[in-house]
Amino acid sequence: MAEEPCQCSDCQRFYREHDRLIRQFPTLKQQQELNWASIQSFRTLCGKVTEELQKTLASCNDKSQKSSEYINICTNQELEDAINELENINAYLYSIEALMERIFDIKVSDKIENKFKEIAGEIAPDPLNIDRLILNRLFHQTPDFPDKKN
Ligand SMILES: [Zn+2]
Q1: What is the reported pLDDT for 148?
Q2: What distance in Å separates the CA atoms of residue 139 and residue 76, rounded to the nearest whole number?
């Protein structure tokens, strides 16, 4: 018997988001652009926050600015830990970006893009589409999921 996908609220939110991204970006080109923009925005934001925290840490360490408002927000140890964690994330994102660049170089013909759209429609149909509603009802009729018995 095939394993039922987990239906907890986190997973359901993930399935919805997953399907929405396929539905709204159903071609290779759109997926490339979406994921590129996503990684870039993630890096930009994390990088900027890291920069700000480093400035804060520097001003906290500067004895002449002991009155800095930031001192009350975080301890230096908290700041250092957060900076280290964010620097790790930025390093991972940088690696992902290097791989994404290669994916981004690939282009396919319109025929293949049409295949992408066709498959996208099959695996992530409009949630208000009647076939999808029937499928959802069938899922909800499934008796206890295995993991609920634990
Ligand atoms: Zn789950």
Answers
A1: 44
A2: 51
Give the Å distance between the CA of 95 and the centre of ligand 1: 29
Which tokens go with 37?
Answer: 């923009």
**136 CA distance to ligand 1 middle (Å):** 17
pLDDT at 147: 47
Centre of ligand 1 to C-alpha 13, Å, is 9
Better-predicted residue by pLDDT, 113 or 76: 113
Give the whole-angstrom CA distance, residue 107 versus residue 3: 36
- In angstroms, rounded to a whole number, what is the distance separating the alpha carbons of residues 123 and 143? 24
**CA angle at residue 21 from 44 to 46, to 5 degrees?**
15
**Within 10 A of 53 (CB to CB), how many other CB atoms are there?**
19
Query: What are phi and psi for residue 55, nearest 5 degrees?
Result: -65, -45
Q: Is the pTM of this model over 0.85?
A: no
Instruction: Flag whether pLDDT at 111 surpasses 90.
Output: yes
pLDDT at 149 over 50: no
Contacting residues for 113 by C-beta, under 8 A, at least 6 apart: 27, 28, 29
Using a pLDDT cut of 70, give the percent of the chain over it.
Answer: 75
